[in-house]
Amino acid sequence: MTGKPGLFISFEGGEGSGKSTQIRCLEKWFRGSGHDVVVTREPGGSAGAEEIRNLLLTGDPGRWDAVTEAFLMFASRRDHVERTIRPALADGKVVLCDRFADSSVAYQGYGHGLGADYIRNLWALAIGDFKPDLTLVFDLAIETGLERAGERFANVSAAEDRFERMGTDFHQRLRDGFREIAASEPVRCRVIDAAGEIEVVSQRVIKAVKDSLARQGR
């Protein structure tokens, strides 16, 4: 895509919704179509943001209050945007990001009760009106998602499981929050049914991306 505007797609959803798996599937699809792709994540995605990630995702669930957590998220995000995402888009690359600012609206705004408007004000202060071209919201029953997340950490590492250990009520608010975010911006956001086999979900993702690119005339 060199010489053309880049494309920024974010992957959102609750714990265990399959975002990380599907981001790799979509990366393969884009590369197969001849695009340069950058895969990144939040919190993290740049050297400074990765240091903040460790503060956010490890330790006791009550380690930070909601306001502190939100400020840490946006400090990480600004560094990520300025050092990784904007340069890649300027080079005409496809950027696939595992979580972006909508996660702060969902987690700190809805999950922790700060309110969506509070988080959106921080969003504007930290990165202005910068948003993904397309946001894929992976929707899955919270019981299924938490079971998947538990299996993932059992097989890899339990170090970054702070959010998974928050209560069921928190995760229900989180799911409801993501649904409300998607409903409030139907052009940018597409809800993906995350239940089913990996290949089935991947086809849903590819269809959503094709539809979005067609609307944008790409």
Task: Describe the structure in your own words.
The chain has 218 residues and is an alpha/beta fold. The chain has a single domain, classed as Rossmann fold, CATH 3.40.50. It contains eight helices and five strands; from the N terminus they run E-H-E-H-H-E-H-H-E-H-H-E-H. It is globular and about 45 Å long. The mean pLDDT is 90.
Portion of residues within helices: 55-70%
- SS content category: alpha/beta
By oligomeric state, this entry counts as single chain
Overall shape:
globular
Structural key phrases:
alpha/beta, globular, five-stranded parallel β-sheet
SSE diagram, text form:
Blueprint: E1 7-13, H1 19-32, E2 37-41, H2 47-57, H3 66-90, E3 94-98, H4 101-111, H5 116-127, E4 134-139, H6 142-155, H7 168-184, E5 189-193, H8 198-216
Parallel strand pairs: 1-3, 1-4, 2-3, 4-5
Please summarize what this structure is.
With 218 residues, this protein is α/β, with parallel strands linked by helices.
